[in-house]
């Protein structure tokens, strides 16, 4: 059983743990999440993954440190190997942000969207320099509020 402890001093009977008792009646945990579709393939010399992550991870670290949000770059071209097969997720490159603090989440979104707009502008310029029609990308995001009981 979850949150139950077998107590040798009580003849092996199960008792509620102190942590479980303290969580009873606790409010659900809220977690704000958003998923940004990157829309730029990672298979060219533009190096989209590096531009999002930043030198030594500075772009993502600065958002995390300023907001407390978690950022995860996933999908084809992310370099993140998932699961037992240690392979990139077979889906388009995307950036997920999650945060249990609404103000931190909103701040993380603002910072991330500014970064993505800058990267998209750089990509347009990169395309022009190669004689490619720039796609003029717009931010695409799916937002979700998750709520769950404390464990």
TrEMBL record:
Residues 1-24 are annotated as: Disordered. InterPro entries: KH_1_KHDC4/BBP-like, KH_dom_type_1_sf, KHDC4_KH-I_second, RIK/BLOM7. Pfam families: KH-I_KHDC4-BBP (PF22675). It comes from the Eukaryota. GO terms for cellular component: nucleus. Residues 43-117 form the KHDC4/BBP-like KH-domain type I domain. One of its GO terms (molecular function) is RNA binding. This is RRM domain and KH domain (SPAC30D11.14-like KH) protein.
């Amino acid at each position: 059983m979850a949150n139950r402890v077998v107590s040798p001093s009580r003849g092996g009977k199960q008792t509620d743990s102190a942590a479980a008792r303290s969580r009873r009646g606790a409010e659900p945990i809220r977690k704000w999440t958003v998923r940004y579709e990157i829309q730029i393939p990672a298979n060219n010399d533009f190096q989209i993954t590096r531009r999002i992550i930043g030198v030594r991870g500075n772009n993502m670290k600065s958002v995390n440190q300023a907001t407390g949000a978690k950022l995860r770059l996933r999908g084809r071209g992310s370099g993140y190997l998932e699961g037992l097969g240690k392979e990139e997720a077979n889906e388009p490159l995307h950036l997920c942000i999650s945060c249990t603090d609404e103000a931190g989440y909103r701040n993380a979104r603002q910072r991330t969207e500014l970064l993505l707009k800058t990267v998209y502008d750089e990509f347009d310029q990169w395309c022009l320099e190669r004689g490619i029609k720039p796609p003029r990308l717009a931010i695409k995001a799916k937002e979700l509020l998750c709520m769950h009981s404390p464990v």
